[in-house]
Each structure stands twice: as structure tokens, then as C-alpha cells.
Amino acid sequence: MTALLVDVFLVSMMVVIAILVLYTRRLFAAIVLTGAYSLISAAMFVNLDAVDVAFTEAAVGAGISTVLLLAAMARLPAEEKKGTSLIIAPLAVCLIAGVLLIVAVMALPPFGDPTSVVHQHVAPRYLIESDVKLHIPNVVTTVLASYRGFDTLGETIVVFAAGLGVFLLLSTGRRKKNDGKGDKDEK
Amino acid sequence: MEMIIAKWNYLVVVMLMMIGLFTVMSRQNLVKKLIGLTLFQTAVFLFYISLAKVDGGTAPIIVHNAVNQDVLYSNPLPHVLILTAIVVGVATTALGLALVLRINDAFGSIEEDQILAAKNSDYGRNDDNKGDKA
Lengths: 187, 134
Description:
heterodimer, A: 187 residues, mainly alpha, 8 helices, globular, B: 134 residues, Helix Hairpins, elongated
């Protein structure tokens, strides 16, 4: 019950912040609010037993991406132009997609159901073997580095490619002062 | 009512996703679009983590105590997938921002309508070509 109340409180804060982000014209405010949104979602992850994800979201989602956005804002206009937003077509698309998603979500097993299909396939094996065979108590680490090590390698390649892309985009520009920026983004 | 409480997390996630999608589609400012993408992305993370939750379960870190051997753990697999997704999400945000910076250099604006107008005028075309050759 307490978990549900905490959940409702955090989620309502996230909805309010998302709406504020949508309506503010000052981009700095929007960026800082996005950082807050990420941090609250990290609190949600703790509430949902995903402590490793919460760590990463707080450090990477709320930290690094906010810093990147703020660094980029140093060279971009700080205000969004007035009266240019489209309303009707995007609203229609969002409403249709939202209704379809709600219909789909209603067919899912109830929230927190231990007999749900998701929990029956490989997860029990990971939970048992991690301790007995690999002697690593943190199962998320085991899956990340052992069972799905190639996924993590792929992730590293994606991050490297993105870093390379950022570097190339910013170092071939007209302005020579871009070079330093590229280095920073690559890390 | 029972139905809504049982699916509460999923319904809210759908709402957050749609706010993010609406931001991406309705705003002309490119930075605002990227922020909308971040909102959408975080909502998807919440959806996956909600699926992994087991009632009465705890974080998937094995505890050794003789008293209670049958501890219930949440599903670790979605956690791992989302760990990867968070890092990849930041990488894509960085790449998107680099593109926005280059667009701003080439067209002098980050508003979509102004960029399209500049692209159709002579100034924009010459500027763009110069950027490509350099």
C-alpha cells in the first residue's frame, strides 16, 4: 500500500513536470526540468526494486544528458520562438496512439503479478545460477557481463560510434573553436 | 476501479509517453524536440521496469540468510536491458545535439520553419554547400 502511495506521488510529479516542459518557452528551464524528471524517475526505479537502473538513470540520465544539453545551449538561442507550434495533427496522432496503447496495456497481466509470463522464462535460471555457478550476488551484473556480454559489447560500439559522430560533426564545422567541444562530448 | 489500480503504472506510462510524443511533434524548436524524445524515452524505461516488478519481491541481489531461504526477487532481465538503453539514449542525445549545433551554424536558427525558409532561399543553399566542402 505504501509503495502504491509513493508510486502515485512520484508519478503525478513526473506528469506535472512533463507538462511544464511542454509549455515553457525558456529552454534552460525546460532542460533543468528534464533533469528533475529523470531524477524522479530514478526514485521510481528504486520503488520498483531496480536499484542498478536507478543509479544509472541518476548519473547518466539526470547528470550527463543535462550537462550535454546545457553545454550545447551555450551556442544556441535560449528562447523558443512564439506561436509556431502545431496543435491539431499531433494531438490527433497522440490521442489515437494513446488509445491503442491503453487497449494493449489492458491485455497485460496485472502489475506485480509473480505468475506473469515475463517471470517464467530465463529469469529464474539467472537468479539461481548467478549465485551457485558464478558466485556473483548481484544478478543484474551477472546478466550484463556474463550472459549478455555481447549485448554490452554492442552497446559500447554504439556509444563509440555516437562519440565519433559527435566529434566528426563538430570538428569539420566552419568555426575552428568547435574542436574542443567534440572532445568533451566523446567521453 | 480494481482494473485501473492493477494497471495503474502502465496507464501513467502511456500518458507520459504521449506527452513526450506530443512535444516532439508539435514544437518547432529542435532542442525542444530532443527534450521531448528524452521524456518519451524515460517513460519507456519506466514501462519495462514496471513489467519486471514482482509483488512482495526485492531487488535482484542474492541475500544469504539461514532464516529465510525463499526470498522473492524482481526480474533482473528488463533491468539489464534498460541499463543498456539508458547509456545508448545519452549517446543518441549527444549525437542529436551535435547535429542541432551544425544546423545552427549552417542556417542560423534552430526553429524548423526558419530552417526550411533559409534552405529555400539562396543564402541557405550557398551556406549549406560551403559547409559540406569544408
